[in-house]
Amino acid sequence: xxxxxxxxxxxxxxxxxxxxxxxxxxxxxxxxxxxxxxxxxxxxxxxxxxxxxxxxxxxxxxxxxxxxxxxxxxxxxxxxxxxxxxxxxxxxxxxxxxxxxxxxxxxxxxxxxxxxxxxxxxxxxxxxxxxxxxxxxxxxxxxxxxxxxxxxxxxxxxxxxxxxxxxxxxxxxxxxxxxxxxxxxxxxxxxxxxxxxxxxxxxxxxxxxxxxxxxxxxxxxxxxxxxxxxxxxxxxxxxxxxxxxxxxxxxxxxxxxxxxxxxxxxxxxxxxxxxxxxxxxxxxxxxxxxxxxxxxxxxxxxxxxxxxxxxxxxxxxxxxxxxxxxxxxxxxxxxxxxxxxxxxxxxxxxxxxxxxxxxxxxxxxxxxxxxxxxxxxxxxxxxxxxxxxxxxxxxxxxxxxxxxxxxxxxxxxxxxxxxxxxxxxxxxxxxxxxxxxxxxxxxxxxxxxxxxxxxxxxxxxxxxxxxxxxxxxxxxxxxxxxxxxxxxxxxxxx
Length: 494
Prior knowledge:
It is a single chain. The chain is an alpha/beta fold. The chain has helices at 12-24, 66-74, 102-112, 117-135, 149-158, 174-180, 187-201, 210-222, 232-244, 289-292, 295-298, 303-309, 386-407, 411-414, 423-430, 473-489, and strands at 4-8, 27-32, 43-46, 49-52, 58-59, 81-82, 85-90, 95-99, 224-226, 248-251, 255-261, 264-269, 274-277, 279-282, 315-324, 335-338, 352-356, 369-378, 415-421, 461-463. It contains 16 helices and 20 strands. It has a 7-stranded mixed β-sheet, sandwiched between helices. Strands 10-2-1-14-20 form a 5-stranded parallel β-sheet, with helices on one face. Helix 4 (117-135) crosses helix 8 (210-222) and helix 6 packs across helix 8 (210-222). It starts with a strand and ends in a 5-residue tail after the last helix. The model has no long low-confidence stretch (mean pLDDT 96).
């Protein structure tokens, strides 16, 4: 494959594209501004403790899952541990368990809401049936939104008669379906659903696209995994594969300029080094594009991409904590959502996701210690002055620790290490302006055919990552990387 490909950014999307193309035979150079791979799915180390930066729950690793297909193609198997109980979901009035087994999960929900048995059973039946139909498209993985004749033909060729059943749902929100099943006013049930959606879809049931919500609520049943060491293993494996297949990997290289000269792309990094390529894949936050491209190139970008550049997303506060679990009543579970402050809704410490290493995971911490990553959504305007920044960081940190102590007695006194990852920290570590993370909310206005394509509008210039459809999370980022690799190679690859 006689193509020189420059990939900028070693997040999951960039690494997926780079490793697939290198395995396929392309000449690939990958530049990463950090000293670590993985971006928001990377890691950092403090003393003897290893902390996942953001992503913690292994998804897409079941047979036929997006990541499983990538690692199988690369011949890079991962050590994974399937979860039968995926997570606990702690709410003000009840605690739920998300079970992998669908029937067990529905039975568990009916036990919590026996007066709504019929509605809950019919709701989940519809969710699972819808997700099953949508997943039949994931084998061929057509591009959405299609922007070329070839992509439209591939999409049409992927459709089967059963997909007609999805059409009535295309412009519906999950809120509409909850109403159909008489569950719109069952607040505890709805809050539980919203807690799941904010972490995967970046929005709640009122606004989320129903088709995407159905997949998001069902995908944990397909397979959720604990990855020994952490999800950063995804990045490490793909980085290894890239180099083994002749690719060049350069860390601590921040691209400051991309220019189009004749039929080639020329990149310049912060050290003044230059890199020439026939094709470019950009896996950096799209908000950085004005700092990298000249105005005459910016105006040639596709309209959704241009509009996305000026659209803010959520930011986050993340706590990185190590605890001596022997001071607790029992080790912490691997994954737990906590939503105890209903006044704060789905953000600002009112809801957060808490991931802990298994006690026996010595790749993460010494014996007797668990490392924990805890993150909450926050709005960027709350952090826009120095005075606000420090106050909000302390306020949200304390709010989350207090909530944990209500669930885990003696939590505070078990802490042996504590630090925060506030928006400026995310900006420094991952290059995300103002700490914007997670991608755009998957509403009807910004998903499916209204989403941002991996095609930028510039010749041989592609974008991937959580701002590109299908959005946030490692699965979404990897999918956009797969589309970029397919577009360059002209082959399906996986």
